[in-house]
Amino acid sequence: MHFYLQTLEYFPFLLKGLLWTALVSAGAMGFGLVLGVPTAMARDSGNRLARTIGAAYVDFFRTTPPFIQLLWIYYAMPLVTGWSLTGLQAGLLGMSLYSGAFLTEVIRAGINSVERGQGEAALGLGMNRLQVMRRVVLPQALANMLPALGNVLIMTVKSTSLLSVVAVPDLLRNAQVISAFLQRDLEPLTVAAFMYLALTLPLSLGVSYYQKRRRPGIA
């Protein structure tokens, strides 16, 4: 108990780490959506090259460990491109690319869940394909995508714990700093685990609640 009390003395420091975790997660989801929408459209387009590039991106980032992706972006990419990134920049880029691959498939499934006849009817009314996507398809697809989007957000929050390896002052990194100072791992990491839980549990409960509201006949 003594060491838990000592750990809680550094609670503001842990809160700063939690804030960085939340900010990077939100940024990764935002950039991931910006990347995911056009990639999802490319995956279902009539252009073979666009389909191939989209599939290669999704398959690569969904099937390789995000830890390796992050290390490659931070350590190897500067050797290949000459562009050096800070830990925060590398972390945000890595998490965006990783979440974007999952978001692509979520968006693609949501778009395909909208009845094709609605898009054809909108085209018949004189809308172009971009207008059909923006005004007809995406608003309906969004309602179907929300649970999956919530799950990707939860996954992204948990994956940000990897940012500690590139010195981003996220929750895990700050917990490790406290562990080194106190020379105790159990208490700081336990407190950090409960702080991750406090961030992800409301998201999980929100997803479950939304799914039940969408399907009221299912307990």
In N-to-C order, the SSE pattern is HHHHHHHHH
The total of beta strands comes to: 0
| Largest sheet composition | none
Indicate the overall shape.
Answer: flat
Main CATH class:
Mainly Alpha
> What radius of gyration results from the CA coordinates?
21 Å
Tell me the number of structural domains: 1
Low-confidence stretches: none
Structural class by sheet pairing and helices: mainly alpha
CATH topology: MetI-like fold
CATH architecture assignment: Orthogonal Bundle
Mean pLDDT: 89
Percent of residues in helices comes to over 70%
Number of helices: 9
- The CATH superfamily is MetI-like
Protein name: Amino acid ABC transporter membrane protein (PAAT family)
Subcellular location: Cell membrane
Membrane topology: Multi-pass membrane protein
Transmembrane segments: 20-42, 189-210
